[in-house]
Amino acid sequence: MTAGLHQLPVKMLGDLISPRALERILQDAATSRGTTPGGMDSQTLEDILKREVFKRLQLSVPAPLAKRRVSEVLAELSRTTQERAPLNDAALDELEEHARRFALYFDWPETQRLRGLLGVARQEQEAGRDIAPLVQEGRDLTAQMDRRLQEGLVVQAQDLAELRAIFTRVQGLGSREVRRLDTLIAQIDEAQTQGTLVPGEVDRARTLTYTLRKLLESSVVQGLGGGDSAESALAQARVLELEREHALQALNAAEQEFAALLLVRPELRAQFETLRGNGAQPPPTAQALEGWCETLRTVLAEVLSEQRDELSALERDLSGHPAGAGVRVSLDAARHLLDRGSLASDELRALGTARGALQASPDGAGLSGEAGLNAGRELLEIERTARDLPGAAAELAPLIAEAQAALSHGQEANLDPLWAVLERHMGAAAQERESFDDRADRIVAEYDAVRGLAGETTQRLGRLADTLRAQRRLGPMSAAARSRYAQTLDDAETLLAEAQAEYRAAQEVTATFGDDALSGLLGVFELGALGQEPSVPADPTAAEVWTLQGCMLLSGPRDEITVPLTNLITLAEDMGVTDLTMDSAGHRWAAQRDAEGLWQVTRTRR
């Protein structure tokens, strides 16, 4: 049996039932069969999964869900080699390869802990000590980082699709900013293909798209003048919506940048929630947001200084005691994080628990430093897992505080009640995820029925459908990923309803005028404008002429047809069309694109 194979159920079912409970089930089941978890063959493990594990899962989740998840573990088990792999240089080489893969994300706590773990593992191996626990922790860390990477790639893919869609609208501006945006999109696309996150490039591209979109919409407002026309009001509303959207994006980026600080400073989290508001009030101005971020940077520098002092004190206090592998890994990880300018709150808490255990029982009567550290890390694992489960953190907060106080005084803490609370929330989250996946499947299936429609609604729905497919493929999700999944579902359902309404309207129109009579026009001319005859010039025989570059109107009448006309030209460019002729009940339309990319559109009476 492959080393650590009994950890497979713990890894794959850890979102439904606590790892401790699963390990206990495996231990008891193995003992009843006259073996140990590490000594089980695949047939024994398969039998335990079908019996004890499946039975236990049904206490938390519905039987169909439990059956499906156990089947997934069995399928993975059948693909796993049956020979025990020695924990030697090859195992550490594999972990070091993973460490190099994630070296780019040096600000992730998992990256720095893996780095420290590898150094300690090599030392332990040279001393002839067992490194199996360190190797297993290293594998767990790489699994956590891979989950974080995959979630990030889903978000980046969605950002890339939106950036491309916006670029098609603003490329006609032809400015240096447009060319820079084109370059950034190419860089993000290449990184996405290689499975690499480039948040800096994405942020710069977002800022450019905001600037260009605002310029485009502002030019429409200026072109329409200061009158009371509905189109002018609509363009002004779009400018305000752009400003609101950009402010919220900047606020979310700040939350992500300072997430570790907001965790250790609740008063700053409260300020952030006040700044974000409830959606009814306007978002903060750019100046207010920058001022708040500057405050956070100042506080972060102070907390980093405090944590460096705390680490120095911990190193002094622990230096007089034999340091086990776990203590050394935590010390190295904390040092690496602080050297990189990242907070090491979790590592310092675990080390503080170890110090408390040693100081409370210097004669060894209570918890040892290593045991205190392990208990502290288990408590941290409970706390981190609770953050990813709706409602779990608030319910567990008093229990965690009580357990932390006991450990700090060198006393053992019974963590079983905490795991029990966590399991209940895990079961609820698993059922919620099941419902999310069902909604995603339905949306994607119903989108396929309307995807033939042209128009902005269907295009946006298509991008969200792609995102839902990617989110659907993710394994266990973090709280942030689950929140994004829920938001994508809500947005997609809204757009799906609009697309279905457009589809029904198109069917009604084509039933009157013949099949494909309006093919491609939905989304070009708004539904509300269908059947409305555009305004005509004073001289009925005169031709009206518009000149456009991309989606930007350079000259010509500005009336209710302006926006549909620019949308039509944008669609034509997307399709590679350079010459258009169209007839309506009273007009003939002709549009041609010259070698310089300028469009001339004429409208004459028939």
How is this structure best described in words?
With 606 residues, this protein is mainly alpha-helical. Among the domains are: 1-85; 420-519; 527-605, Dynein light chain 2a, cytoplasmic (Beta-Lactamase), CATH 3.30.450.30. Helix content is 68%, strand content 5%. Helix 3 packs antiparallel against helix 4 (63-79) and helix 7 (132-170) packs parallel to helix 9.
Offer a few descriptive terms.
single chain; 606 residues; mainly alpha; Beta-Lactamase; 5-stranded antiparallel sheet; 21 helices; elongated; coiled coil
Structure in a nutshell:
Keywords: Coiled coil. It contains 21 helices and 5 strands.
Shape: elongated
Low-confidence stretches: 81-86, 520-538
Give the end-to-end Cα distance, rounded to a whole number of Å. 82 Å
The total strand number stands at 5
| Secondary-structure element string | HHHHHHHHHHHHHHHHHHHHEEHEEE
Strand order, biggest sheet?
A: 2-1-5-4-3
| Mean pLDDT over the residues | 80
**How many helical stretches?**
21
Could you tell me the strand content as a percent range? under 5%
Keywords: Coiled coil
